[in-house]
Write a structure and sequence with these properties.
Helix content is 2%, strand content 52%. It is mostly beta strands and 288 residues long. The protein has a single domain, classed as TolB, C-terminal domain (Neuraminidase, 6 Propeller). The strands form six sheets. A five-stranded mixed β-sheet has the order 1-22-21-20-19, with no helix packed on it. Strand 16 and strand 17 form a beta hairpin. The chain is globular and about 50 Å long. The N and C termini lie far apart (46 Å). The relative contact order is 0.18.
Length: 288
Amino acid sequence: MIADLAVLAAPGTARLGEAPRVVALGGSAPAVHFTDLLEGTVFRLDGDEASAALEFPGETASAIIPLDDGRTVIALHRSLAVLGTDGDVERRIELDLPAGTRLSDATAGPSGHLWLGVVPAGDDPAPGQLLRLGDDGVRVAREGLGFSNGIGFTADGSRLLHIDSTPGIVWSIPHDPATGELGEPERLYVHDEVGALDGLCLDEHDRVYVAVFGGGEVLCLDGGAVAARILVPALRVSSCVLDGRSLYITTARVDAPEEELAEFPLSGSLFRFELDASNGPVWEGHLS
């Protein structure tokens, strides 16, 4: 089993770094973007520095989703901000989420649907869900979840990978890439180690990279088995994305005690690790 160390890509102090994605915002060239979920800020990686590209005061910003017409969607607390090709907010899509929930990880699938994780939030939290949004409306694809987290698809679109962090399960679900319909979920991996499973991404060989929040690592799953561990100089590892062969990894400082921050002062920064494989297809959503 391989255990290697990720390196610093850009220093930062994100309370909850999240949602890394390679997108082109405002007509710029495609670049790695990510968020500070709790601050509602979207950052852009430029060289070895990250700078704020967008801010949504008073909101959470949990996901960045490219659309097939050059626009981009930002998942906010309980709504979606649709950015035009100039990078400005074109419109907001308000979602009728259950009380006691907010949006979490989200992505687009091969059918053009947006897949939106919904997680417990607030003083009276409710069970999580997985929503499917498209021209055919909003559908609850999965419900009764503990904490809906990472979402991704295999290269041929035949499987949806979905994390429920509360039981620590990576689910593998049959998926029709033409219609977005799901089959019966199957357990791919059950986590019984330190930390909680968080965001994920897949490479061209359908290996699944899973961030372990509190575990200080990204697991590489191959066929459901841990094939490699990528160690990160921060315990609160939240998500990851592949840009070619470069795996970019977000981390957090939220709720970290002083002793942890003293040992891991780069918590809240963006990290990078070079793989022997490239990213799989980049799916784009469709909104009319």
